[in-house]
Structure formats: structure tokens, C-alpha cells
Amino acid sequence: MPWPILCRDLLLAALPAIAACSGLHDEMTQYAALGPRYEARTWLATNANPYPLASNRFESATAGAAFVDSLYALGADTVYVMNVQEDSAWVAREGGPYADALLIRLPDTPESRQSLFARGAREARAEGFEPEADHDQRYLYLWWD
Q: Which of 4, 7, 15, 80 is deepest in the core (most CB within 10 A)?
């Protein structure tokens, strides 16, 4: 087989893997731009703010923690808090940092993914947003306005 054809065939065979890596990198870069993220259970357990998570959705830290626990029960690999307000003025005024978003690292199992996307869809619709569809992404982002 001539060299240019062999190179073309190898490149064509590798394109799906390259595209998958590129998509994951883009997804990770997108969320990294939103600032630091912290594992949600730990962050909530150590936060002195009485309303640390999306106070327009969760009436207390306990309610926010129960929601995070429900995501883990549905099969989330990891749940992170995002959009964290943690500057010293905010912390002094509120008693601790505040976040209004969660980032769910999705599992590979189809049943768990389906359950997490269904939960995400309910939250999105309640906020007036279009639910995100499962297109084999690694993360699901929830934000409360």
C-alpha cells in the first residue's frame, strides 16, 4: 500500500478517538473557566453559610445536602459545587461561601445516566431552561437563577 494511502487510512481510523478526546477537553475547559469547584458534600459540611447552595431553590444547607445526596443515590460519580462566591466580603456578609450551580460527573451506566438526566431536566424546566440531552458528555451542569 502506498505511503499516502496508509497514512490517510490510519488518520481516518484514529479520528473518532481524536474527536472524543477533543470533546472531553473542550468540556473540561468550559467548566474550568467557571472557577474553582469543590466536592459538594465536603463543601456543604464545612460551610457556615446557612444558605450556601442556590438559596432560591434550597431553603437550607440541609435541603441542599439532601439534594446532593439524591444525586449520588442516582449514581453520580462526583458532584461538585460551581460558581462559588468566596471572596472575603461575601464570606463576612453571608457567614460562608455561596454557590448557585452543581456539576455532576456522570457515570457510564445507562440507567444511572438516564436517571440523572431526568432529574436535571426537572430542575431545568423549573427554572425555565431547556433540559440538556445526553450526548455522551462526561458532565451535567445544573444552575439555579
A: 80
Strand bridging mode 139-143 / 101-105: antiparallel
| CA–CA separation, 25 and 18 (whole Å) | 10
The C-alpha atoms of residue 130 and residue 122 are separated, in whole angstroms, by 10
Q: What percent of the chain has pLDDT over 70?
A: 81
User: In 3D, which of 118, 113, 115, 119 has the Cα closest to residue 135?
Assistant: 113
Distance, CA of 38 to CA of 140 (rounded, Å): 15
Per-residue pLDDT, averaged over 122-143, amounts to 95
**Burial class of 95 by CB neighbour count within 10 A (0 to 12, 13 to 18, 19+):** middle
Q: What is the largest CA-CA distance in the chain?
A: 71
If you search the block for the grid coordinates 473518532, which residue do you land on?
16
Q: Which triple of cell numbers denotes residue 52?
A: 450556601
Q: Which residues contact 117 (CB under 8 A, 6 or more apart)?
A: 131, 132, 133, 134, 140
